[in-house]
Amino acid sequence: MMAKREVQNERLRHIEAFEYYYSLGEKRSLKKVAERFDVGLRQAETWSSSFDWQDRIKERDRKVGELLAEQNIQAIAKAKTEYREVIEELINRFKAKLISNKDANLVNSVSSLEKLVKLDMLLMGEADSRNEEVLTKKLEDWL
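Above: the chain's sequence. Below: its structure in token form.
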């Protein structure tokens, strides 16, 4: 970690140089920083060392990774919720048509309904082979 004295000596120019250095990604080099900021290579090396650029890169990459992971988790949760709402609607329509003795053409077979129920359970994180067998038996009994 950087010492307080070093952080206090970091100026806007140093921060801009670090941000540029970070933005280079895999093509990152202190030579490019030196060229961009019109300083010698030794000066860019001093900035990197004094302001702990390597540890800052690792920390930033870790934070970016955490943010990406959280965004992916939220996207997956949203998709599961939307899929489950569609499945629930289809199951409700199927049940209503069965009760009213109409042809259930939205889900036209017990096998289609079974697949929807299994998919719903899987999206909830509940399905395994034992649960699926019990669920199938209960479905057969219900119908």
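The two ends are 66 Å apart (CA to CA).
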